[in-house]
Amino acid sequence: MRLVVAEDTMLTREGIVRLLQDAGHDVVGQAEDADGLLREARQHRPDAVIVDIRMPPTHTDEGLVAAEQIRDEQPDVGVLVLSQYVEPSYALRLISERPERVGYLLKERVFDVAILVDALRRIDDRETVVDPTIVSRLVGRRRSPDPLRRLTDREREVLGLVAEGLSNKAIAARLFITERTVEAHVTQMFQKLGLADDGQSHRRVLVVLAYLRASHHPIG
Questions:
Q1: pLDDT digits over 160-210, tens only?
Q2: In degrees rounded to 5, what are phi and psi of residue 197?
């Protein structure tokens, strides 16, 4: 894949670039702020951009704003955003309009090359990738009443994997069960929670995340 990497900390940026190059990807541009990311994306038209959410000058959401602008200008460009913190609201904001070809990972994970490469592969396949830490926090949060109590342990497990963006086939491989069994669990899960499943993997990720997010107070 042809990639642009945006990260204001030079050592972190160079580390990510080196991992990507060693994995066989072509890093066609680098940026240290959001404006630089937009310039590089417009010039090189990469397959995907990797961007830290918090970038200069305010270190709030400049990277996220730039990612959204890139998706508006170049809908076919994949986006992998990185965050140092667990911020579910940002993940939902990013994927709410076009959940395909987008990923959200905690920054600490990108230095595991297997996780980074897998996330980029899935994004290139028009999938959605959500960090499992965010999902586990959302699924595991105690609520009163807790609507997830309606689910069996296996259904809760499947719910978490759906929220991470895994397809039925990938969930079956992860849990060592058949794809048909996964389909049955997903159907039961959605029915019990009163959710609509249109069959599109990336759309159901958004539905599940929005449901989990609305079921309790914000996470810090």
A1: 999 999 999 999 999 999 999 999 999 999 999 888 877 677 778 888 888
A2: -120, 110
Fold matches, 2-127 and 135-214: no
* Cross-strand pairs, 48: 3, 78
The reply to whether omega before 132 is within 30° of 0 (cis) is: no
CB 201 within 8 A of CB 207: no
Structure tokens at 161: 């994997």
Output the six-digit token pair for 63.
Answer: 């990277």
How far apart, in whole angstroms, are the C-alpha atoms of residue 220 and residue 204? 24
Each residue's pLDDT tens digit, 88-118 = 778 778 887 777 899 999 998 888 999 999 9
Residue 143 pLDDT level (bands cut at 50, 70, 90): low
CB-based contact 41:9 (threshold 8 Å): no
Q: Which of 25, 162, 43 is nearest to 80 (CA)?
A: 25
Let me know if domain 2-127 sits in CATH 3.40.50.2300.
yes
Contact 102, 75 (CB under 8 A): no
- Tell me the one-letter amino acid at 8: D
Q: Where are the domains of the chain?
A: 2-127, 135-214
**DSSP code for 4:** E
Between strands 26-31 and 102-106, the pairing is: unpaired
- Quote the pLDDT of residue 217: 45
* CATH fold for the domain made of 135-214: Arc Repressor Mutant, subunit A (1.10.10)
